[in-house]
Amino acid sequence: MSEFKLTTVEEFEAATARLLETGAKVGADSWQMRVKNQTPHCKFGEQGVCCRICSMGPCRITPKAPRGICGCDVHGIVGRNFLRFTAGGAATHSDHGREICITLGHAKEGGDYQVKDPEKLIRIAKEWGVETEGKDIYDLAHEMSDLAQEEYGKIRGVSRWLKRAPQHTQDLWHAAGIEPRAIDREVSCALHMTHMGNTSKPEALIRQALRNGLSDGWGGSMCGTEFSDVLFGTPKPIDTEANLGVMNAENVNIVVHGHDPSLSEMICEYADSKEMIDYAKSMGAKGITVSGVCCTSNEVAMRRGIPMAGNFLQQENVVLTGACEAIVVDVQCIFPALGPLSKCFHTKFITTSPICQMPDSDFIEFDAGTAGEKAKQIVKLACENFKNRKPELVHIPDLKHKATVGYSVEAIVKTLDGVTNSQVDETGTTKPLLECITSGVIRGAVAMVGCNNPKVRPDTAHIELMKKLIANDIVIIASGCSAQAAARAGLMDKAAKDLCGAGLKRVCELADIPPVLHMGSCVDISRMLILAAELAKDSGLNISQLPVVGCAPEWMSEKAVSIGNYVVATGLDTYLGVDPYVSGSTEVASLLTEGVRDWVEAAYTVEKDIDKLGDLMIARIEEKRDALGI
């Protein structure tokens, strides 16, 4: 049996360099070139000290000009910018969740969208106090769709999902004044607070940033995750493959990209139909290969086993292979550069959402009411484009790894049930994992999330940190582009157990799991909140006492700031490898790294040296273990 080997970042980069050679032949642009053109970055922006929220400015803070024209100092400006950044991310993830709630309202027997997990729908309904006895499952789905949408604009109370948190956590939120009310209200409140002439007190701005983040994680994102499971099935472990080598030179290649599974599920459904496969063959192809990029890829990988071509900074590479008939996008993290890039090849760049319209694309508006019709149109268009391929430009890197994905909370609990003694142990809990932690077999866990960022050598931080942590018997749960980095490197292959410390290796062998567990897309970080809550309840501890931390070493988007805020506000210390544009204010930086601990029992740590970042996480996990006496 050959020794298990990871794919290295150097191999990723060599494959990209070869693809960029093809790009150079056809005059294509690339993010690597654009980074050079945009470097060095504006230092005022990086420190968060410039303000453009009214037209008296823009103002920027310098030793010569310590206040803006309105008199706001650097701490108010940095705090307002941080809150606005949060509001953008919370609005984005929450709007994704809203679209899923709307789609649930279109579900019907035999329709394009159906209820694939009725048990979960009933469980959520009972949790929300909705009568389920004797009710048709689709009548219940439509009732829950309406109730979920009302969460966005409810006129009293707080988010329904907050009750899932341990009572101690709920009490902390209440005492700190950061319980999220209606989801949309917190975004609107954030924008109101940061309008010219309103809040400039850092403490108030950071409280609202935490509250706005919580409205996402324990609100909009949780709607997105939970009702996606109801519609498309709750993920369970499934084998797939990852990296650019999953594309097939003999097939029609359709790449789905973005975040909303409503579109990608339909594309996969029709691409797998005999009618469309026969149509592809009539166009000269041998079949159809659907692969994914970014979080849309995570969504269809964990439910259908669709292979993952790459993460955020790989999106141009799928076009550069010359073998992509269509890159079909929904929302979020889509490069506008895909338009002009696709025109250098035969690729169809197809946008589908009114929220994400771009130049040089074919816009085919997609909605829940016409889902099947539009999906079939898109797949057919891709098949017809196969004959326009230029064989001399086709090069698919020979890189791919096996990956086991789809570890929802339900799947993790079921996996744990498989290693309990059913005669004496309680099933359906996280207690077997807790026993591994308290015995020291596993030291703790890290929830690793986030994007790619050219400020960090792409994927290096994710992969190197994961290798370091698993070697120290720390299990990883991962989502989003971080999860895809792990899959592309081979860290979601069960054979990666050989890279673990002795304790974690034994656990991987016994439970038959990889050391890095795929929990889904970035909206599915809400799963991590639920897992942390269940661990706390099953252990009798507060979330902040668990030897668990969060990490986003390559984050780049507004969504990531919202995520960071709700992870910290939930009680998990969070470690960043990229500065969140607050270094210009000692007061805001101090609040985020120290002060918020008084409110929520957790805080941020920023460390750009990735090796040191890993050491800090390990030290914090051991500190938590020492405090518990384990």
From TrEMBL:
One of its GO terms (molecular function) is nickel cation binding. [Ni-4Fe-4S] cluster binds at residues 259, 295, 333, 451, 481, 522. This is Carbon monoxide dehydrogenase. Its EC number is 1.2.7.4. Transmembrane segments: none annotated. Its cofactor is [4Fe-4S] cluster. It catalyses: CO + 2 oxidized [2Fe-2S]-[ferredoxin] + H2O = 2 reduced [2Fe-2S]-[ferredoxin] + CO2 + 2 H(+). Keywords: 4Fe-4S, Iron, Iron-sulfur, Metal-binding, Nickel, Oxidoreductase. [4Fe-4S] cluster 2 binds at residues 51, 54, 59, 70. The keyword 4Fe-4S applies. One of its GO terms (biological process) is generation of precursor metabolites and energy. [4Fe-4S] cluster 1 binds at residues 42, 50.
